[in-house]
């Protein structure tokens, strides 16, 4: 059985989530600027001693530093690059959410992190195929954050998995996120949107989080980016990084072809490249469990 | 409890140790190709993600299991290494699971379907065919094979486990 939850309940649950550090929001803002470089990233991180320490510690973990200790932030950032730095920063800054058990989706521990990371990498690789310019780094951060609402909604979905799966498979709902909305009053995208606002994440993040399953409901100027993240999410589910019960139960909006120009070979090449980068980042981040 | 050999995306495993099983998680559009060789009681599995290795531009050698055209021959080779081979691949029992569907009228994202077609074509060219399959549909599958019995169990969140 499911019960409807209220907007106030959602806001109360979101208020209990720790805020992300200012440096985190600044990095997201920076990623969204067209001509940023590694020096800009270093300048933001430098002002956050805890974050600097954490990055050096992670980069010095055996796999990345190959035995030579790296003591300067500049060296660390230029060695591993922007995707890895953002992965390190947010897997730590929002650890409580990324590594939540998604019992409400009957998912495995770590699934949400792996799903979002794979989506982020896929979004960055799909971005260049957009017919209008989409900043690949913005696409990466949107992919990384798109499903964080699942960490909060999961609690309210506990015990509903069999019922939800049966209803979606029976065709009662168009997809899993519509089922969420109908059954409990909200879906994970709407809750993720509230979370993004609470955290003060810069646009376009809140909007992309909100409309990633139904891109056409978003603003016109965001359509190319929304479709990039929408497709990246599908790719992530297809290639082994789902989050349990909802995996493969979200439909693709075929209007993507108005905004993104992809051939079969392109998508195959993207899937393979994503696999390689995903495994590199996963094996470099310590304590993330088995690479899968 | 038996020992699980975990097969990652594009990975493969073979075994004839009756105390073991081989398992792969969360197949979306990927397909698990499972080979059973009754005369030697051996089992093998490859987790195929894409139909054709041409897209890897030479780097497919690092991950032959990722592609149908390289993965199936490599699985046969690994099976042969543990003694599981017969002339013309006769006696090799093949079963398939995975290949979930993405409904894309543009025919770009239906990778599951293309994987299935490529796998069947390659099996056929090697004198084999699948005797059982659990393919398509709109959910992800976790698949495990018990070496001792060759029994294949499929699980998916929110559904009761089933066997093929
Ligand atoms: Fe989602
Ligand atoms: Fe997602």
How does this model look, in words?
The complex is a heterodimer of chains A (292) and B (164). Chain A has helices spanning 7-15, 22-31, 38-46, 49-59, 62-65, 73-93, 95-98, 111-126, 136-145, 149-157, 161-169, 176-184, 188-199, 205-211, 223-238, 264-284. Chain A has 292 residues and is mostly helical. Chain A folds into 2 domains: 7-18 and 96-286, Hypothetical protein af1432 (Orthogonal Bundle), CATH 1.10.3210.10; 21-93, no CATH class. Chain B has one domain: 60s Ribosomal Protein L30, Chain: A. Chain B has helices at residues 68-81, 111-125, and strands spanning 3-7, 12-15, 20-27, 31-37, 42-48, 93-98, 130-135, 141-146, 152-155, 162-163. In chain B, the strands form 2 sheets. Chain B has a 5-stranded mixed β-sheet with strand order 1-3-8-9-10, with no helix packed on it. In chain B, strands 2-5-4-6-7 form a 5-stranded mixed β-sheet, covered by helices on one side. In chain B, a hairpin with a 6-residue loop joins β9 and β10 (162-163). Chain B is globular. The two termini of chain B are 21 Å apart. Classes of the chains: A mainly alpha (292), B alpha+beta (164). The A-B interface holds A 105-108, 161-162, 164-166, 168-169, 231, 234, 237-242, 244-245, 247-249, 251-252, 254, 256-257, 262-265, 267-269, 271-272, 275, 290-292 and B 6, 8-10, 25-30, 47, 49-52, 55-56, 63, 66, 100-109, 111-112, 114, 138-140, 157-159.
Search tags:
heterodimer, A: 292 residues, mainly alpha, Hypothetical protein af1432, 2 domains, 16 helices, 0% strand, globular, disordered C terminus, B: 164 residues, alpha+beta, 60s Ribosomal Protein L30, Chain: A, five-stranded mixed β-sheet, 2 helices, binds fe (ii) ion
């Amino acid at each position: 059985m499911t019960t409807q939850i209220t907007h106030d309940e959602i806001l109360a649950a979101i208020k209990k989530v720790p805020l992300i550090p200012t440096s985190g929001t600044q990095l997201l803002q920076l990623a969204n600027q067209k001509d940023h470089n590694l020096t800009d990233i270093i300048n933001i991180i430098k002002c956050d001693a805890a974050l600097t320490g954490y990055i050096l510690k992670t980069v010095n973990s055996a796999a990345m530093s190959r035995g030579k200790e790296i003591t300067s932030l500049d060296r660390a950032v230029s060695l591993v690059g922007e995707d890895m730095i953002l992965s390190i920063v947010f897997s730590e800054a929002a650890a409580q959410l990324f590594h939540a058990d998604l019992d409400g989706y009957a998912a495995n521990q770590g699934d949400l992190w792996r799903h979002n990371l794979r989506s982020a990498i896929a979004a960055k690789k799909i971005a260049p195929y957009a017919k209008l310019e989409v900043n690949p780094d913005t696409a990466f951060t949107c992919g990384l954050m798109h499903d964080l609402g699942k960490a909060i909604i999961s609690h309210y979905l506990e015990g509903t998995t069999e019922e939800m799966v049966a209803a979606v498979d029976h065709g009662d709902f168009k997809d899993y996120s519509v089922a969420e909305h109908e059954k409990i009053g909200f879906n994970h995208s709407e809750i993720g949107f509230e979370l993004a606002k609470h955290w003060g994440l810069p646009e376009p993040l809140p909007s992309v989080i909100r409309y990633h399953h139904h891109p056409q409901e978003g603003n016109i100027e965001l359509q190319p980016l929304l479709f990039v993240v929408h497709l990246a999410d599908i790719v992530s589910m297809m290639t082994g990084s789902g989050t349990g019960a909802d995996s493969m139960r979200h439909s693709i909006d075929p209007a993507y072809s108005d905004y993104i120009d992809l051939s079969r070979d392109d998508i195959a090449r993207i899937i393979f490249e994503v696999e390689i980068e995903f495994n590199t980042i996963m094996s470099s981040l310590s304590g993330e469990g088995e690479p899968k | 409890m038996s020992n699980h050999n975990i097969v990652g995306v594009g990975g493969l495993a073979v075994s004839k140790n009756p105390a073991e099983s081989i398992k792969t998680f969360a197949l979306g559009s990927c397909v698990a190709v499972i080979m059973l060789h009754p005369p030697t009681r051996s089992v093998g599995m490859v987790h195929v993600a894409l139909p054709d290795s041409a897209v890897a531009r030479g780097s497919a050698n690092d991950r032959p299991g990722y592609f149908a055209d390289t993965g199936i021959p490599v699985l046969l080779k690994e099976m042969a290494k543990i003694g599981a081979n017969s002339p013309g691949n006769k006696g090799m029992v093949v079963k398939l699971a995975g290949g979930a569907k993405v409904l894309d009228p543009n025919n770009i994202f239906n990778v599951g379907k293309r994987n299935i077609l490529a796998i069947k074509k390659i099996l056929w060219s090697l004198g084999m065919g699948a005797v059982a399959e659990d393919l398509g549909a709109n959910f992800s599958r976790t698949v495990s094979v018990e070496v001792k019995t060759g029994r294949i169990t499929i699980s998916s969140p929110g559904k009761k486990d089933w066997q093929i």
